[in-house]
Specification:
By secondary structure, the chain is of the alpha+beta class. 46% of the residues lie in helices and 14% in strands. The protein has a single domain (14-175), classed as Beta Polymerase, domain 2 (2-Layer Sandwich).
């Protein structure tokens, strides 16, 4: 079987699917998880997406997470190591019919900020979502059975939005008043 790049309309079920899987991951990984986030297009209300739930784990140590490979397999995930991003641990679930992706980083890794900035930017700036959905649909049409081609097609658009999102998020953080007990 070959993976098919399919972009579908947003589903009200995606947040529930995330919550269900987040509970399963918390039970298995316990205190290795510092924080867990729903990221990617399925985390943005109204945004068309491949129907794959992306989960970002902030963990105490990605190296310690390697010791949970069998536990992740029992949950249906395939441990793939860094898979092209240094400091990450990547786990797809569902084989050619993907249902979930887990991306794990150490809690202080800059990739965490970038992923959350991208998600939050699209949530707060819904005018960017239709253009992103169009690019994803075009990518899926041009690369229906080529995941690498799909990602490459979207790359320039995504990087532009990530750059805007990081800039926006950094300024949001700068404008946020310090909470009691914080500097």
């Amino acid at each position: 079987m070959t993976r098919t790049m399919e972009v579908v309309e947003s589903s009200d079920r995606w947040p529930e699917m995330y919550e269900c899987e987040a509970k399963r991951l918390r039970r298995v990984l316990g205190d290795q998880i510092v924080r867990i986030h729903h990221i990617g297009s399925t985390s943005v209300p109204g945004l068309a997406a491949k129907p794959i739930i992306d989960i970002l784990l902030e963990v105490r140590s990605v190296e310690a997470l390697d010791g949970y490979a069998d536990a992740m397999r029992r949950l249906g995930y395939e441990p793939r190591g860094e898979f092209g991003i240094p400091g990450r641990r990547y786990y797809p679930k569902g084989g050619d019919r993907r249902t979930h992706h887990v991306h794990a980083f150490a809690a202080d890794d800059p990739h965490v900020f970038r992923h959350l900035a991208f998600r939050d930017y699209l949530r707060i700036h819904p005018e960017s979502a239709p253009a992103y959905a169009d690019v994803k649909r075009q990518a899926a049409a041009a690369h229906a059975t080529d995941p690498d081609g799909y990602v490459a097609y979207k790359h320039a658009f995504v990087e532009r939005i990530v750059e805007e999102a990081v800039h926006w998020k950094q300024h949001e953080v700068d404008r946020t008043p310090a909470k009691e007990g914080q500097e």
